[in-house]
Amino acid sequence: MSKHDGKKKAKHEETAPETAASREKMRRKAYERELGELQIELSALQAWIKRTGERVVIVFEGRDAAGKGGTIRAITERLSPRVFQIVALPAPSDREKTQLYMQRYLNHFPAAGEVVIFDRSWYNRAGVEIVMGFCTEDERDHFLTATPWFENNLVEQGITLIKYWLEVGEVEQERRFRARIEDPVRQWKLSPMDLESRKRWYEYSRARDLMLSATDTDTAPWSIVRSDDKKRARLNVIRRLLSQFPYDPLPKTKVKMPDRDMDDAYDDEVTMVDRRWIPEHW
Prior knowledge:
Largest sheet: 5 strands, parallel
Oligomer: single chain
Strand content: 5-15%
Strand order of the largest sheet: 2-3-1-4-5
Number of helices: 9
Radius of gyration: 22 Å
Distance between the termini: 47 Å
């Protein structure tokens, strides 16, 4: 059993903290220390998922610049991409537009011993698609009606479904957008759709409220994450994730480095001397 409870929390058992807009941002040294400990636990969780054949789907949604990508990286950077797989689908192709709406997401669902993390998901229909006019209100309403049934069926089929909504404040979102505008190595993160989301802040708020009201169910609840402080948000998400599973600690086994077999030994450095080495500028 993990030190993070190992039991699923009841809906709304953990209440949101008091408004944290004025809280001091977490210092990097403290963050890296806590993250390192949690990543060891994640490795134990990974071993447990592989051994038990668990199938896990994790959905990350939230406002633009809420920190979804960074949180997903914090979870997966020390794990095997064969077990923890990230799915970030582009806009649907012309062919995909003619498929059943859920079809292209189902194609990426996990087999036994796998975790699939959706960096945005089928919930696009309840967010960006309706706000930006890519679907009709009837299509959105049908989605909101059908999704609880769809997700309940997933859970009944043995899939563990976990949904996170990252909520960033208006002031912090603007700061992050401005940072992307001014930093050339981060401008790729800023799309015309992101800028439009600033303009349509309250339309997105209404879409969020409707989505949560329709799809926050006992079977597939939404976990809301305050993400004005990215470091705290990442740690809180990982801790919450670990608490969802009764995994075992990593075994403390000693690994012995084997000696090289010298029967076929030769000077394998000489054979590399005249190869096409890149220039060493540093």
